[in-house]
User: Which sequence fits this backbone?
């Protein structure tokens, strides 16, 4: 690690402060997409394959596949193959509790902005 770079322990790995903020950007960038948030919220209800997600969200398969690739790469979802279908499910260990916490936070602090209240 060069001078001027702080080292931060994240889980079992040491990462630089610069890497940490790049990782934040990837993580929160994943949540910025409305289509990915819709997929996350759909998967909160249970496992789905690409066709089921496409039908439920009324969008095209290419976009869903692209979003699922990003969600999987970032650990938001996991997949399993059953027969000829690949099913996606929410990461129950980290993302479900995080989304529950985000929902509570938004209902307490953010929803009033949408409703035009202080």
Assistant:
């Amino acid at each position: 690690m060069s001078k001027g770079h702080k080292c931060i322990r994240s889980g079992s790995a040491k990462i630089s402060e610069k890497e940490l903020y790049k990782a934040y950007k990837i993580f929160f960038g994943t949540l910025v997409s409305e289509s990915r948030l819709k997929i996350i919220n759909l998967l909160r209800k249970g496992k789905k394959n690409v066709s089921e997600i496409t039908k439920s969200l009324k969008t095209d398969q290419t976009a869903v596949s692209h979003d699922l690739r990003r969600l999987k790469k970032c650990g938001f979802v996991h997949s399993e193959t059953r027969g000829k279908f690949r099913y996606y499910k929410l990461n129950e260990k980290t993302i479900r509790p995080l989304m529950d916490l985000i929902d509570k936070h938004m209902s307490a602090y953010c929803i009033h902005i949408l409703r035009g209240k202080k």
